[in-house]
Inverse folding.
C-alpha cells in the first residue's frame, strides 16, 4: 500500500487540522515586516544610492524620495516574490534546518506545493551562505568544543546527509 503523503508530515498536518497544534505565522509576519522596514530606513536606495528611503506602517511599499523607486519591503531578500508569507518562508527553513523533516513533509505541514517550499528553502540557504563568511569572521575565535556540520545541500550516494 503506497502512501500519498509522508507519515510524520501527515500526522503533523492532522494535528493542525484538529486544532491541537496551531501554525499561526501572522505575529512572525508582522515582526519580519517591521524589521525589514527598519532596515530600509537606514540603507541607501538600490537604484540611485541616495539615503532617502521612506516607509509607512500602512503600506507594504517603500519609496526613495530621490528617484521615486517604490519596491516592496521584501525586495532583495529571500522573502521577495514568494507564494509563502514571510513567516512561512522562515518557518519552512527552520523546520528544514533544525528538524529531520524533509521538504515534502514541510510542504504537507504548510499545505503548499513541494516546489514552492523547495525554492523558498533554497533561496534562504543561498542568502545564509552568502552572509556566512562575515558571520564566521566574527565568531571564529569564540567557538570551542564539538561542532556539527550540516551538508544538506550535498547529496552523496543518493541519500541526504550520508
Amino acid at each position: 500500500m503506497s502512501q500519498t503523503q509522508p507519515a510524520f508530515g501527515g500526522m503533523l498536518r492532522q494535528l493542525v487540522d484538529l486544532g491541537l497544534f496551531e501554525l499561526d505565522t501572522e505575529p512572525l509576519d508582522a515582526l519580519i515586516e517591521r524589521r525589514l522596514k527598519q532596515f530600509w530606513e537606514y540603507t541607501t536606495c538600490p537604484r540611485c544610492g541616495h539615503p532617502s528611503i521612506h516607509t509607512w506602517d500602512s503600506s507594504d511599499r517603500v519609496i526613495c524620495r530621490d528617484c521615486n523607486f517604490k519596491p516592496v519591503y521584501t525586495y532583495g531578500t529571500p522573502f521577495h516574490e514568494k507564494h509563502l508569507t514571510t513567516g512561512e518562508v522562515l518557518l519552512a527553513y527552520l523546520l528544514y534546518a533544525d528538524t529531520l523533516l524533509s521538504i515534502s513533509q514541510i510542504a504537507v505541514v504548510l499545505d503548499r506545493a513541494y516546489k514552492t517550499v523547495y525554492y523558498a528553502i533554497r533561496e534562504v540557504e543561498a542568502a545564509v551562505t552568502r552572509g556566512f563568511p562575515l558571520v564566521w569572521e566574527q565568531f571564529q575565535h569564540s567557538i570551542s568544543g564539538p561542532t556539527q556540520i550540516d551538508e544538506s545541500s550535498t547529496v552523496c550516494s543518493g541519500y541526504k546527509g550520508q
Remarks:
- The chain has one domain: 13-138.
- The two ends are 28 Å apart (CA to CA).
- DSSP finds five helices and four strands in the chain.
